[in-house]
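Data availability (excerpt). All sequences and predicted token strings are deposited with the supplementary files. A representative entry, Protein-tyrosine-phosphatase putatively secreted as type III effector, is shown inline so that the format can be inspected without opening the archive.
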Amino acid sequence: NHVIISRGATPLSRGVTASDVKPAYAQLTPEAYRHAITKFKQALTTPERPTGEPVFIYDRTPGELENFRSSDSFILPHDLNQKGWDTLHISGSASIA
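Structure token line:
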């Protein structure tokens, strides 16, 4: 990663705050600024639609505080259960524990 700053400035050195360092785009010429914008103009591609069954059920019940339904006997598809786990615990943030 490269950090572009104003000439002669040291980022966040003693006595220098983030607001003292001018952003890199403030140093660009109008032509370079246009080029920097057009460089990121291309839209990101969207992923393909899933073809299999969903592994997690998302709960869209209005007013429900828990987004994911959890179970102590959640059945994981065989191709996703290479370790042979009997139980899958899902936390409120949907991380696997």
